[in-house]
Amino acid sequence: MATPAEELRRRIVADINAGVPGAKLGSERDLAERYGTSRSSLRQVLAALEEAGLVHRVIGRAGGIFISHAQVQRSVSDAVVGVPAFLANQGYVAGTRVISTRITAPERVTQKALQIGANDYVVEVQRVRLADGSPISLELAQFPAEAFPGLLEQQLGGSLYEMLEKQYGLVPARAEERIEAVNATPAEASLLGIKPKAALLLITRITYDQHGQPCEFSRDLFRGDRTRLAVSVEGHGVGIQSADTASVSLQKQEVETKAS
């Protein structure tokens, strides 16, 4: 059972997710009355939400508590890490909505990625990933059906990598990713809570297991208004070891640039 503070946090986060970046939630007094709590209890919860980047305070006659979104950074060049892990590491409550699952024949691009034939089958899982209840990405993951019997009978709402390691002994060892900008279709926009044709960041990934075999082919669509690709490159001169890195982050939205 949730504590009063946790219940208050959930109610405020629900209102944040129902609003838009830059919108005013209210003053401390207004919010204390709305949620039926003391201002001291409210301040503790607001302080945690402000530290997490979900809200910010503005001082003055027109001030109050305003909605904002913090950056959530994910490395795309180091260890293979699932969405729940990098969200949890940065203080977000990770969530998942399973949209559809099926066993189907692979398209040519999937056959090539997973090194399977036209007569083989793949297990396909489509999910929406959430950060504190707000949609951040839409993913379509495909796995070779022969390698993972009974996959659709497993729990698919959490980290698929953790489940694959626990149930099948598979360890995601490395991944190859291609990143490009695309526009949201009406169906994708509806699932992500954005406008049709809004900008999305498409990450197409082939994941390899500890034996060097491809085990996953996925297409992740991250909201363009929440996502930033960052790349860091060190020098390649004499005596300097190469250490290129790249990351994807959910970025803070400004009032004048909000898209949904």
Features:
single chain, 260 residues, alpha+beta, Arc Repressor Mutant, subunit A, Chorismate lyase, 2 domains, 6-stranded antiparallel sheet, 3-stranded antiparallel sheet, elongated, disordered C terminus, DNA-binding, DNA binding, GntR family transcriptional regulator, Chorismate_lyase_/UTRA_dom_sf, WH-like_DNA-bd_sf
Topology, pairings included?
Elements lengths: L3 H15 L5 E3 L1 H8 L3 H13 L3 E4 L5 E4 L4 E4 L7 H6 L5 E11 L3 H7 L7 E10 L2 E11 L15 H9 L5 E10 L2 H7 L6 E10 L5 E10 L3 E6 L12 E6 L10
GO biological process, one term: negative regulation of DNA-templated transcription
Protein name: GntR family transcriptional regulator
InterPro entries: Bact_HTH_transcr_reg (IPR050679), Chorismate_lyase_/UTRA_dom_sf (IPR028978), Tscrpt_reg_HTH_GntR (IPR000524), UTRA (IPR011663), WH-like_DNA-bd_sf (IPR036388), WH_DNA-bd_sf (IPR036390)
